[in-house]
Amino acid sequence: MAFDKVDTSSINTIRLLAVDAVSKANSGHPGAPMGLAPVSHVLFNKFMTFNPKNPKFINRDRFVLSNGHGCMLLYALLHLYGYDLSLDDLKSFRQLGSKTPGHPEATDTPGVEVTTGPLGQGICNAVGLAMGEAHYAARFNKPGFELFNNFTYAIMGDGCVMEGVSSEACSTAGHLQLGKLIVFYDDNHISIDGDTAQALTEDVLKRYEAYGWHTSWVKDGDNDLEGLAAAIEAAKKVEDKPSIIKVTTTIGFGSVLQGTHGVHGNPLKKDDVAHVKKAFGFNPDESFVVSPEVYERCAEAAARGAAAEAEWEALYAKYATEFPELAADLKNRIEGKLPEGWEKSLPTYTPADPAIASRKLSETVLNSICDVVPQLIGGSADLTGSNFTRWKTAEDFQPPSTGFGSYAGRYVRYGVREHGMGALMNGLSAYGGLIPFGGTFLNFVSYAAGSVRLSALSHHQNIWVATHDSIGLGEDGPTHQPIETLAHFRAMPNIMVWRPADGNETSAAYYKALTETHTPSILCLSRQNLPQLEGSTIEKASKGGYVLKEVEGADLTLVSTGSEVGICVDAVKLLEAKGLKVRVVSLPDWLTFDKQPMDYKLSVLPDGHPIMSAEVMNTLGWDRYSHEQFGINRFGASGPAPKVYEKFGFTPAGIAERGEKTVEFWKGVALRSPLRKAFAQIQ
Helices (H), strands (E): how many in the chain? Predict the structure, then answer.
């Protein structure tokens, strides 16, 4: 592959756009963009297929910058290739409200595929994106109609290599034989603390070879453009393994501080900026300079991508006449629509139905909807038999060579990799038209908190099937019993944390998880059986909170979630025997309830009498909805579930005792609903 002086100019332009933006902001990381400009130029200009006028073209090649602190590399590329990112946007780098935040944000910047920042997450997302391509190709491609054949490319640095979550995902990628995943490892020997030899002395390529990856090494990533191109071409030919290309670069290439950690996270000094510009043939008195030749060269690559999309659209039009059902499914996915009438498959229950654990109720939902909602793709972190996440007609998502399934399958065997599972789900979601779910114990969703947080931040519609949700799991004891977990995730913005009390509430949780397209969900599900409650419906529960048992002139409202709602219902009988009038409210998801109109919320949690919450979790946060809180602010205990509940007072008698004391304490006080706050109407 031939390269000329315009390629060199393009590479140096990327470097200097990064230098100028970081200098203007007086904040950022110039070193990585300066070192990675050659490989990124070769990739974008010579290999990738994308259309800047339609960043969501479904069969585009994906690019992930996992070492997201080097984001000016990505912003410079997006600007040069014609995405909706102007020079003024580059000049606003790291400024409030700009399209160029301090780390790539998929919700802020056109052309950014995934939100990266915490190291290791981006490379995991890239694995998920490659899984998405493999699944779409297996589901939709037909002879003569290769609708899906895109590659996923990623750049990662030493920090991503060191983070454990990347090991989880990259091990998975090797097992899955994701041949359309190509990763560049920026081997620049520098991290924030200095030389990586202080902390990283393993042979990274041997590790990836052991994972089952194709490996190669470009030893002069600063200058060997032909070598970079050859390595990419060779990697594209390896169809049964993901590829990692180690690229040895010089961080801050061209700076007087090149090759040192001094150029990692600090703007270049003014005289160094002038030095770099002179060295690369630019005027040191000018900033944010792009020559017409560079714009033209980049526009040629963008035009090829636009032409590829036009060809794809023409192919899809023919495909739709040959395979109308598959074409309709694909159209729904691209438009973000669920199949019409899917919600009619959700099971409903009456009090005459038997008590069932909500993890089993979840299994019933999955068996009811997975065949009618083909967008669902999910599995478990090696807990299938405990999470009940595999529906009856499921086929495993596996390389055909393993004999375990095919890429058309939708059941993913994540292995014991909770954090990696969460990050892979983010990548699957980012591919488009897929709704990922993953199962584990609720307590171990905490293992994946970094990935869950990025789900919420990035608006990924992921579903966590989180079973064994409380001390009700019993004998496994405190190491497995979640206490603080719900307080943590309820405090996180833009995530629904559902803890259903019966079958109708479980169906409602899935309904909201599938219809709230920009919000992830954690479904907290019991190991122990739960009764089907009088007064529960999918419609009521879909509001996040509702009155399960109403009474005129109430002395007390008990508000609860999950397995404790049924106990509260039984406690009411004991309180009524003492002459007290008691309402019961179920509050399965706080976020959904908080979004309801205030008049509705006040009808559920009204003025005039005390409200007591009861939940076998930390009480943190419950003061938003109750005057008194009954919970567990210590770790759990090992023993049969009924005995553990009894130990902590979560029995009808224990709740009734505390309810009676609540009424006595607040007697004679003109109580206002805890929902009434000074800032309640301020958004």
Answer: 25, 20
pTM comes to: 0.98
- Measured between alpha carbons, how far is 106 from 122 in angstroms, rounded to an integer? 12
CATH of residue 626: 3.40.50.920
pLDDT score, position 682: 66
> Which is the catalytic residue, given 133, 163, 168, 418?
418
| DSSP secondary structure code for residue 589 in this structure | -
Contacts by residues 189-197 (CB-CB < 8 Å, ≥ 24 positions apart): 189/158, 189/251, 189/259, 190/31, 190/158, 190/251, 190/259, 190/260, 190/261, 190/264, 191/157, 191/158, 191/159, 191/261, 191/264, 192/261, 192/264, 192/265, 193/261, 194/260, 194/261, 195/261, 196/158
Q: Quick one: 275 and 349 in the same domain?
A: no
Residues 289 and 205 in one domain: yes
Q: Are residues 242 and 385 in the same domain?
A: no
Going by C-alpha positions, the residue among 67, 76, 120, 94 that lies closest to residue 251 is: 67
CATH number at residue 298: 3.40.50.970
- DSSP 3-state percent helix, strand, coil across the chain (nearest 5): 45, 15, 45
| Rounded distance between C-alpha atoms, residue 645 and residue 471, angstroms | 7
pLDDT at residue 681, as a whole number: 67
- Note whether residue 323 is domain-resident: no
Tell me which DSSP letter residue 142 carries.
B
The ranges of the chain with pLDDT < 50 are none
Same domain as 190, residue 70: yes
- Partners of residue 218 on adjacent β-strands: 247
Q: Give the structural domain span for 575.
A: 544-666
* Structural domain count of the chain: 3
Strands 529-530 and 411-413, bridge-based pairing: unpaired
Same domain, 557 and 522: no
Tokens of 91: 């000049």
Asked if 439 contacts 382 with a C-beta cutoff of 8 angstroms, the reply is no
State residue 680's pLDDT score. 72
Considering the domain architecture, whether residues 469 and 503 belong to the same structural domain is answered as yes
The answer to whether 364 and 327 are in contact (CB under 8 A) is no
As a whole number of angstroms, the distance between CA 104 and CA 118 comes to: 11
Question: What three-state secondary structure class fits 101?
Answer: coil
418 is annotated as an active-site residue: yes
Backbone φ and ψ for 129, nearest 5 degrees, come out as -60, -40
CA atoms within 13 A on the CB side of 372: 14
Say whether both 303 and 387 belong to one domain: no
